[in-house]
Amino acid sequence: MASMKADARAILFVGLTAVVLGLPMLLLGPLVDGHDTIEHINFTRHFTEQFWSGDLYPRWLVDMNHGLGSPTYFVFPPLPAYLCALLEPVGRALRFNSFNVATFLALLASGICAFLLLRKTVGPTEAAVGAALYMAMPYHLVIDFYRRCAIPESWALAWMPLILYFLPGVVAARRRAVVGFAVSYALMVFSHLISVAMFSPIPLFLVVIVSPAGARIRSMVRVAAAELLGFGISAAYLLPAFANAKYISTARLALFWAGSTGANEVVGFGRGMFSLNGGDEWKAFHHLIAWADVSTMALAAVSALALGRDMPGTSRRLSVFWSAICCFSMFMMSRLSSAVWRYTPGLTRAIQWPWRFSAILCIGVLSLLAVLFSRRPWHSLVRDNRVRVALSIIAVFWLFGYGYVWWRYKTDTPSQKRWLPVNDHDGWFRGWSPMGMDPQATLLASAGPRIRFREGDGTADIIIWRPRQIEFRTNSLTGGWVMVNQFYYPTWTASIRGGATPIEVRTALPEGLLEVQVPPGIQNIRVEIPLSRTEHLGRWISLLCAFLCMLLGFSRARGLRSTEDGWLFNSFRPPDSQPKGERSFCTPLSG
Known about the structure:
The protein has 26 helices and nine strands. A five-stranded antiparallel β-sheet has the order 2-3-9-5-6, with no helix packed on it. Strands 1-4-8-7 form a four-stranded antiparallel β-sheet, covered by helices on one side. Helix 3 packs across helix 5.
């Protein structure tokens, strides 16, 4: 009972810390000049409207971009939008902004998941302190959550600790842990694929470090199978996203935003950190990342030094492993990695910007804290004067970062980004918009009739206008090309209603809109983006994997008990292999 009360107090502390750190978001909403603010607001607004109108998975946003549509959600992860949509009726009833609260939940969830991870091996006080530090890490809080308003990546930072929380149970073949791992992994896929690509190797490498030599392959197979199950759960999103990736170019998108080749987007951690920005907003942003990462890496260094060398074998290996993860992340963001980015364009297309490895740095530092707190309670650390000085310096930088957030709100003005006149702040517009399109011609066309003949005489009347499904009736002596006020996308098809023969579809240039070849006479034309094979297949795979998870979840638990999973961070041998009477580091401290 005392332990439960201590846990409750610790979780309350984590929640209050999240409220304090998230207060600007709750009171004022996201920064207007946040990098992704307006596009996320627009995405979620259109997504929510279509969801509550009966489109349970809105992939084509029919009213986006001046009512000309957007295919962004064919590849964009849907979890943040779903959460906002589900909160919308509650927000209207209780009079709160559902977008602000949904965004805040990403920060709160990261703290709770970090607490769960640390609580496996340490007491509630240490776990709460570590969770608070994780939420306050400058890249997590100042840059991702506020400056960039990178909501998908903020959610990924919540799921990473949860995946590590279930990892020991996966290695111990506990079925419910496998379910928890797979669901957490699927949630990260639904949130941010780039983070999935960066993070996925880490659990596999980690079990190699902690598993006995004879069990490493078996452990890796179990973890890989659990990751595969997570991919299966998310197949309803993942398979169509991969199928549509060829139509939505991230390379075009990255080149538009910053002329990025990866090598020219690395962060300077040297004297450049102290240089003036010269009014260049992008350089100022890079300097902010540099200071955020250096201060976070300083915490990693303090943790590694505080651990020292006098540790059991596995704790030492874990300290080295997570220190290496932190150093690797810093390397991939620094100018030392310029050649890597220059000669691997596929890496740039997958990750987009090297400084995304800051998220991996955050989870690496959190894991170092887990190892440290499992060896030494936090209050014993601050008795060391050297540690006190180092932590004070780090605290100053992090508090400055929180103050910087409030200052940004005082100076907050709409971004001066140059948008195309038909781009309704659709952040992916440059990646999929038709080549050869003239934005002014597109804007002019959007103000005209939704359906009209481009050549010849005839009339066109709308019968149905829905996302991915449009029907209209034409009456023409000669037939001809009819332009529809929706952007062209390669998966549009057209046919005469009741007939099986498709009719030709092409891009209307310079407008970039959809154009259909209509026969003469009175015709009922159906234009649609039909459910693809990958969408059907993805749904069935997701249902099958969800059913498999239910079977595993309701089956009798096997393997190690949940209280014996702490060996991930502080003990090499599972408890059943330890000599009788030996002190086990696998049981979490009781507080």
